[in-house]
Design brief:
It is a single chain. The chain is mostly helical. The chain has one helix and two strands; from the N terminus they run αββ. The chain has a two-stranded antiparallel sheet with strand order 1-2. The longest helix has 29 residues. The termini are far apart. Keywords: Membrane, Transmembrane, Transmembrane helix.
């Protein structure tokens, strides 16, 4: 079973990186479309986080 460890060590950073990149892409995409909503009470940006 120890032969699976290298796979995990490679897969986990890649997964985190792809999740982060996807999140940033979604935020930029929303900004471009102007979909980012603003909270009525505090004026903070409300989007996909």
């Amino acid at each position: 079973m120890h032969s699976l460890w290298p796979l995990f060590l490679i897969a986990i950073p890649l997964w985190i990186l792809s999740w982060y990149a996807g999140r940033m892409f979604l935020l930029n995409y929303q900004k471009r479309l102007g979909i980012l909503k603003y909270c009525i009470h505090c004026g903070k940006r409300v989007g996909i986080y």
